[in-house]
Amino acid sequence: MKPRLLWLIVALSSIWLAVILISVLAPDMYSQWDGTFPIAAATTWFFGAIATGAVIKEIARRRSPKKVYIGIAIVTTIIWLAAIPVSIFVPLLVNSWDKSEFPLAAILAPLAAAAVTGLAGNIIRPLMEIDWGAEDDEAVAEDGKPSSD
């Protein structure tokens, strides 16, 4: 299996594992009049699809070095694994008038994860393509002394 495809599978499986866990485990929206509604299950898949498109677009570029698509896959995994506990464990927004409960974090965490996943390629690619061990401002000759050119 090609390494690019392997890292693509890692990134996409982390996104969709997070989508499934958030959809199943996040608290439902509750209203006194309307009952419960699984708002996370209704919205998270959309943000997962957006993140999937962003990851496929970034990893599928043919000219990107290996460290770029490995970095994108690792950052995507970290982002979506962080969205899981935020969506599930952040307290609900409660209306004091009718005791409605709204899981705001269950909507905003996947939205933020999709947005940051989309930006990750634009941030990681330039950082990974820089040769950080390149020449210093002063060229050093073989004897260890600065050269005069």
Write a brief caption for the model.
The chain has 149 residues and is mostly helical. The protein has helices at 3-25, 39-59, 66-89, 104-129, and strands spanning 29-31, 35-37, 93-94, 101-102.
Which H/E pattern describes the elements? HEEHHEEH
Number of domain units:
1
Return Rg in Å. Answer: 22 Å
Structural class: mainly alpha
Fold and architecture overview:
With 149 residues, this protein is mainly alpha-helical. The chain has one domain (3-129). Helix content is 63%, strand content 7%. The protein has 4 helices and 4 strands, in the order H-E-E-H-H-E-E-H. It has helices at residues 3-25, 39-59, 66-89, 104-129, and strands spanning 29-31, 35-37, 93-94, 101-102. The strands form 2 sheets. Strands 1-2 form a two-stranded antiparallel sheet. A two-stranded antiparallel ribbon has the order 3-4. Strand 3 and strand 4 form a beta hairpin. Helix 1 (3-25) runs parallel beside helix 3, helix 2 packs parallel to helix 4 (104-129) and helix 3 runs antiparallel to helix 4 (104-129). The chain is elongated. The termini are far apart. The model has no long low-confidence stretch (mean pLDDT 84).
Feature tags:
63% helix; mainly alpha; two-stranded antiparallel ribbon; 7% strand; single chain; 149 residues
Question: In terms of topology, how is this protein built?
Answer:
Elements: H1 3-25, E1 29-31, E2 35-37, H2 39-59, H3 66-89, E3 93-94, E4 101-102, H4 104-129
Antiparallel strand pairs: 1-2, 3-4
Helix pairs in contact: 1-2, 1-3, 2-3, 2-4, 3-4
